[in-house]
Amino acid sequence: MELNQVTVPALDVAKSVAFYQQLGLRLLVDAGPRYARLECPDGEATFSIHQVPELPQGPGVTVYFEHEQLDEWVAELQRLGVVFDELPTDQSWLWREARLRDPAGNQLILFYGGENRKNPPWRL
């Protein structure tokens, strides 16, 4: 089994598409204003945005995007005007993470876990 795609909710799909394109995703399907699907620049995973009449309540969705040059990526995104809630920080679970929200309020974590992503010292 392989993860194909993740879908996040949005009130304004076009605004969210523009945001994710800033992160480096490429538009594959534009069925606006209700739906769009993008692909990650590396690997086979896709990412979609689906228009909803209202956003879910509570903590909602958290999506992780990994990049080996995390600090440089974050600095480039800041130059493009992307606002972060938390800049890259080393975490106790051995990942380096930066946090932000997309235009719909979905939480994104840009991170680098390297070998520890799938093989932390406490792996079963």
UniProtKB/TrEMBL annotation:
InterPro entries: Glyas_Bleomycin-R_OHBP_Dase, Glyas_Fos-R_dOase_dom, VOC_core. Keywords: Dioxygenase, Oxidoreductase. Pfam families: Glyoxalase (PF00903). It comes from Hymenobacter amundsenii. Residues 2-113 form the VOC domain. It comes from the Bacteria. This is Glyoxalase/bleomycin resistance/extradiol dioxygenase family protein. Gene3D superfamilies: 2,3-Dihydroxybiphenyl 1,2-Dioxygenase, domain 1 (3.10.180.10). One of its GO terms (molecular function) is dioxygenase activity.
